[in-house]
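Justification of computing resources. Each target in the renewal requires a structure prediction run like the one illustrated here; the chain below, 311 residues long, is used simply to show the kind of job we budget for.
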Amino acid sequence: MQAKVNRLFPLLALFGAMTAYWLPAWFSGLKFLIVPLLVIIMLSMGLTLSLADFSRALTRKKAVLTGLVLQFSIMPLSALGISLLLGLDRELTIGMVLVGSVAGGTASNVVCYLAKGDVALSISMTALSTLAGVLLTPLLINLSLGEMIAIPFTGMLMSLVKIVLLPVGVGVFIHHRFRPLVGRVAAALPLVSVLAIVMAIMIIVALNASQFDSVGPIILLAVFLHNGMGLALGYGCCRLLGFEHSVCKTISIEVGLQNSGLATALCIKFFSPMAAIPSAIFSVWHNLSGAMLAGFWANKAQRQAVPSSGN
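Resulting structure tokens:
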């Protein structure tokens, strides 16, 4: 179910974004729903996590720590570098750095599964980066953009506690205490998350429909480069550190796929709808690129697994 939903997500997001672009009046008035939608996503994520997912990370310290360091260094630094290189204005630069400073996205777990990576490591990294991001995200934004704009560090930190930490914590608690009940609804959770993300994308596109024609091409290029650098450097750095191919694939996916829904909510709450454009585009693109990369790695693994015929 989850794999099928993940494959459909890019198409649903693309269709939703096009609908909102052509009919912005239908969705622009729903701005107030963005934060509640994200809370639903985070709660759904928590319901899929168990205490074992966190404790498992203790047995993979080197890989998990490497992934977290790469996650919170490559993505914010490359976002800032790309923004300066392309001459993006202040609002778009804020949006790029913000999407680069959040934790890994939940879609990474499914993409990792499809790519035949280390799924247990992927889940552990997603869980820990989500918790670490509550503090690291506002800190990284302040370090990157503090001279460009006044960063509401305390306000952003408290919002992350309310939007991320509490819903995820409640979800993990419910999973732990009511596992049979959660098992009955688990199959529907990916669909709930996808529909919530798609709705958030539609609202963001609707709020910025009149500005897409002018900023669309340059921000598309910025997002493509950002995602590509995350995937490539995540894999390359791990290879240089001597990790096996399966771990390199997993960390590459974790680094390159961001929690763009969270970035969207933070942009709307603390900055502007314009700043949320990069995260809205990232939501669509990183799932497309992740699906394509997973297909490439899965096919490669399948070819290597088939013994060559000899005489």
